[in-house]
Fold this protein.
Amino acid sequence: MTNLKSTVIPAAAMFMVTLIILTGCAFRNLGSNAGDKSLGTPDYTGIPEIPVASAPGVKVSENKKAIIDYSNTRSGYVMVKFVEESKMQARVLMTVPDKTQYIYRLIPGGDFEVLPLSGGDGEYTIEVLEEVEDQLYAHVLTKHIDVVLDDEFAPFLRPNQYVNYTRGSAVVRKAAELTANKTSDLDKIDAIYTYVTGNIKYDTDKAAKITNKEIVNYIPNPLDTLNSGKGVCSDYSTLVAAMLRSQGIPTKYVVGNADNGNGAMIRHAWNQIYTKEKGIISVQISFDGTWKMVDSTFGASFGNKIDQFIGNGSKYVDDKYY
């Protein structure tokens, strides 16, 4: 039996509820069934194809409680499902090649969850855990997987548990509208970044509630952020990631520590975007054929003064990628 209360949960809880930017910013695991669904029969005119995850059962580790489908590791993800219905919690503990550990939520009796292999090539350990008492978890199923990706960008080009969207969602439609007639990735990035920073307001009330633990286990949902027009750093970052990925632009949702502008390092979320093009976007970030940082939260709050926060990137320390 694993006592997550004394080992994993404290670190995870801090990770989830203390992503504070200015007055507060937080994120939580995003379930693949968290509300980004199309209604009726959508018109896909002008909307690109979206890579869809699947669990074909070609490579599977399973028992009566859980299923790990690792048929598509070359495409950058695994599918995990907790089969039994239960009022208790279920989690996945994923250890990536550099030994960083990621915690994902499973809904007992729910659908498969899409979990990205964001640590690149190498050995992963996938552990399914079941809560047996309050915050006490037992191992249900474990699988060691050797991963060789077809494309290093594969984990960051499709929806997953954290960055949730569908081809028929308003998020994807808005991204298609914003990028219509734009041929370069840089122009598409600029259009989406400009829209998000100009139309999504920082939600100080939500931030305060998260900081005060009035809101716990918060799930960022790009569709909710788009519809409400407000959010905290995780909301900004997952919306940007969803929009850009839907346009085929590799985008990471990054969680780590950042300087709040006063010399204090705080938990924060932002994006890294890949493009082979060269050029300058509206917040004076240069893209030169490598991963570059985009902070839409600070961009929305501080506009052209964002460079004092981003600087040369030294004020940001990456922790996890989704």
Notes: Helices lie at 9-17, 170-179, 185-199, 204-211, 222-228, 233-246, 296-302, 307-310. The longest strand covers residues 122-133.
